[in-house]
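Weekly modeling sync, notes
Attendees: AB, CL, MP (scribe)

Item 1: holo prediction request
CL wants a bound-state model with flavin mononucleotide before deciding which constructs to order. AB pointed out that an apo prediction alone won't tell us much about the pocket. Agreed to run with the ligand included and paste results into these notes for async review.

Input as submitted:
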Amino acid sequence: MENQKKVFIIYHSGYGHTKVQAEAVLSGANSVDGVDAELIDAKEAAGNLDRIDQADAIIFGSPTYMGTISAEFKSFMDASSSKWMEQSWKNKIAGGFTNSSSQSGDKTGTLQALSVFAAQHGMIWVGLDLPPGNNSSQGSEENLNRMGASLGAMAQSLADQGPEITPPDADQKTAHYYGARVAQAALRWAA
Ligand SMILES: Cc1cc2nc3c(=O)[nH]c(=O)nc-3n(C[C@H](O)[C@H](O)[C@H](O)COP(=O)(O)O)c2cc1C
């Protein structure tokens, strides 16, 4: 479609759980009319940085490893320094998501790293506008944004369950919602 907005979801997933979250972000972004979204593995993105220049929005996703982004995602970030020098991604819309096994797991550290990274590139960060779920006696594990994040989308995958079981439906729906939100922001910003 002419004038379609391009959204890239650049992610790393060591064991497949963050990939499930990334796919939910993708389906949310692609649910928005006028948006074409695509998943790219962080290693592949690092080797094809010029392709990323086409994006109207980039959503970054990493598992939380040791309280921050994974080493593999950091490799992509460091590779992108050539784009930082040209400020090629300046004024593109940005967002981020993360997944870890603990309820907190220090996931905020990962979203902070991703948002600082986006700011270094001169990008426009989009937070998660969903109210926190499961934070009152009326709440449940089924609530969207049950992790209670604002900076981006969070998911929790229990450590002894595979990606065919976890992250749970509520976290996938949260990721879907967030993908749509960032895509809508791209449409408005690049109008
Ligand atoms: C090296 C390493 C470090 C981890 N550090 C954390 C952590 O800081 N907090 C946490 O809650 N989970 C931590 N985990 C668990 C992962 O975040 C969790 O298993 C996640 O689902 C992995 O996502 P992936 O399957 O996409 O790699 C760690 C796992 C690994 C392998």
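Recorded for review: The mean pLDDT is 97.
Action items: CL to compare against the apo run; MP to circulate these notes.
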